[in-house]
Structure formats: C-alpha cells, structure tokens
Amino acid sequence: MKIAMVGSGYVGLVSGACFADFGHDVVCIDKDPAKIDSLKNGVMPIYEPGLAELVGSNVRAGRLTFTTDLAEGIADASAIFIAVGTPSRRGDGHADLSFVYAVAEEIGANLKQPAVIVTKSTVPVGTGDEVERILGEANPGVKFAVASNPEFLREGAAIGDFKHPDRIVVGTEDDWARGVMTEVYRPLFLNKSPMLFTSRRSSELIKYAANAFLAVKITFINEMADLCEKVGADVQDVSRGIGMDGRIGAKFLHAGPGYGGSCFPKDTLALLKTAEDYEAPTRIVEAVVKVNDARKRAMGRKVIEALGGMDAARGKKVALLGLTFKPNTDDMRDAPAIAIALALADAGVEVTAYDPEGMELAKPLMPDVTMCASAYAAIEGADATVIVTEWDAFRALDLDRIKRIAAPVLVDLRNVYDPAEVRANGFTYVSVGRP
Ligand code: UDX
Predict the structure, then answer these.
(1) Domains of the chain, with CATH numbers?
(2) Which of 61, 67, 128, 415 is the most exposed place for a label (fewest CB within 10 A)?
(3) For 318-372, how does the pLDDT look when each residue is reduced to its tens digit (9 = 90+)?
(4) Residues 6+ apart with CB under 8 A from 261
(5) pTM score, whole prediction
(6) Which residues does the annotation place in the binding site?
(7) Which candidate in 18, 28, 228, 263 is catalytic?
(8) Model ipTM value
C-alpha cells in the first residue's frame, strides 16, 4: 500500500519509517527543505535510538522516500497521514491547529485518488470534523474519509513502542476507512497488538485522556514522595506496594523532579481548555498541572537546601548531570532542568552541566549555565552534584573520583543510587521520597 506522511517530525518520521519497514511504500513530506535534504542524506533531525538505521535500510530498499512537494507526495496514496505539530497556542494553552488545517487544505486542493486522511497529530475533540469540512469544501471530486489514529509512542523508545503497541486506536465510522486502516497495520496483528475501533471523537479524546491519566499517576506518586520525606517512609517501597495491585499497575509510579517533554505539559493544558469550552471542568488535571509546575521549581530549592540553605548557597557551584526531560532523547521541551537551573541562578549559584545529547538545545534555554565536555568536567570543583536525568552513563559514577575533584554531596532527583551505599562512601546524599 502507498502511504503519505505529511510532517516529518518525531511522530511522522518514526511512523513513516516503521510503516516502510512493514513493507508499505512510504513518502515522508515536510515543508522544511533543510530537514528533507538532511533526511535524503541519511542525517536524522532528531536523536532517537535506532532511527537512522531503520530509515537507512528502508531508503536502500526503495520503500521510503522524502519530499517537500505535498502534491507529488500524496499522489496515489491510499492513506494520507497528517503528523504535523500541534503546539500550545501562545497565550491561551489551546492546541494550535493552524498547521493541521493548512495541510488539510493543501491535501484537498491536490487529492486526485480516493484516500483515507488520518490525523496522527494529537488534536482536540472535533478536529476531525473540521478537517472533513475543509476537505469537503476544497471539493476534490474523489471519495475520501477522515479517521483519527493517535500515536502513543514514547521518545527514546519510539521504534519499539510503534512496533509493539499496547493497542492501536482508530476512530472512524466509515467501513471503507476501517478496511484501509486494517491493511495499514496488518503486520502488527502478528504480534497480537489489539486494534480498537471507536468513533472519531472518542479516539481524539482517548489520546488526551491517556496522557492526562499518566500525568496524574506521576504527580500522585511525586506528592506521596514529599509525604514520605516528612513521615520517614520510602516512596520506592510505597510505589512497589501499590503497583502490585493489578488495578493500579506498577508503571509510571517512579517519583522524580516532575514530568516534562513535548506531550504531557501541552496535552494536559489542551485538555483543560477543551473541558473549559464544554463546561465540564477536569479539576484533577487542573491540580496536576499546577502541582507539577510548582514541583520543578521546588527541586531547585531542594538543591539549595543540600548546599545549606539560601545564605550558604550564594557563590557556590553546582553540577547538573542530565538536562533533557528524560534519557535517550535530545528533547529539552519543558525539561525540569530548566526550572532548576533558573532557581539556582536566582539564588546566586554558579551552574555547570553535562548531558550526552541535549546540550545544543539546552544552551539557549539556560544561558547562565556552563556546558561541559563530560560529567567529570562539570563536577570538577562543584559543591554539589545533581542527577537531573537518569541517563545510563550516570548510573555508575565513580564516587571516589568525585570525592577527589569535588565536595561529596550528591542530590539524586531520579533515585538511581542506593542511599546506604552512597553514604557509606562518605557522601551527603539527598534523593526523592526516601529517608
Ligand atoms: C509520553 C507518553 O508516554 C506517550 O504515550 C505519548 O505518546 C507522548 O508522551 P514521552 O513524552 O516520550 O511520552 O515520555 P515518557 O516516557 O512518557 O515520560 C514523560 C515524563 O514523565 C518524563 O519527564 C519522565 O521523566 C516522567 N516520568 C515518567 C516520571 O517522572 N515518572 C514515571 O514514572 C514516568
């Protein structure tokens, strides 16, 4: 089957490459000529493990091509995916749908064969109706249907997630569109991935509800971690203890500095806006957004406390290890490190940092921070070392070496280390929600 993917960002590129790997004939389209040029040369615009290899092998097999020309790219495609960005709109937090609608218009103006138009971008309830209206108005004179097919892949694990999804959600009331979508995903039935067909509106809401629920889980355990610190309990045990209840589930109960990234912050905000518009407020999500924002700043204060409080902290030096919102990505969007660096700078603390992939994108977001060539270069002379993001490289730091070049103070915001072990090494050790 021929598939067109409009938008070659995180979701578009990974989905396009995986569809090609399934054996489909895929064209990835993007209006950014620099991005398309670099993809044609095998250079990935994002850091994602395994992506360059997957793209390379499918390009060589002739199943994956790139173009900036939408009309050419969608020619003969039976399924045309819209996977452009839906960032938070400046000022009001609504999802900005201008890119989605612009693409819908261009598809409408150029469509010459029957095709299913699929929104893969995360879009608010009702967007599919609008896309259908725009296409209808453009009056392509051929049969088309509009389906919703949200994507649940995680950055850093994108290819594995795409190929082994917990479920594939398809929202459409159209039988022909169901058939086309079943063909698109057929190879996944072999690994028993279930396909859930719903109405288009339900499918659109499923994506937001899933992300909001996960944000609730994380925020809940983060608040339990704060309580653990007060009452002398261990949040790792609490997590394990509640997660063993099948109704709760063990995943997404890892306490930390608060969630960040390209999805949870923007999708929770957009869900609040939809709920507001329809006068059905989602108060739990409202609280989660506020608590999570406050938490990122509070982590800065936690580091300052480890330095002996506000007065003692002034003029001291802190090394931040890991800046991206999570490991195995170079994505800095809404990363807790940004708020932490800001809180430290406000307190007159000098900050150095090292991240395996994120420093390029981090630089403009934290201009006061000195980026270093390695973890130990950042740690050299520091009064405290802070693990902000749990890259594997920080899981086995040489504590003796740190003691030789810096103060033995470790603030572990991801609970990577065993408190007893680190303390036995002569360190002051602060973690999240553990005595
Ligand atoms: C998320 C969703 O998981 C994915 O389904 C959706 O399609 C896009 O958003 P992603 O943003 O790539 O994916 O990252 P994820 O691994 O879910 O982590 C999100 C944030 O939550 C990170 O900042 C992470 O550090 C944090 N997190 C996650 C926790 O603090 N604790 C946890 O237990 C899990």
Answers:
(1) 2-197 (3.40.50.720), 208-289 (1.10.1040.10), 295-430 (3.40.50.720)
(2) 61
(3) 999 999 999 999 999 999 999 999 999 999 999 999 999 999 999 999 999 999 9
(4) 155, 325, 326, 331, 333, 334, 335
(5) 0.94
(6) 30, 35, 86, 122, 152-155, 207, 252-256, 260, 266, 326, 333
(7) 263
(8) 0.93
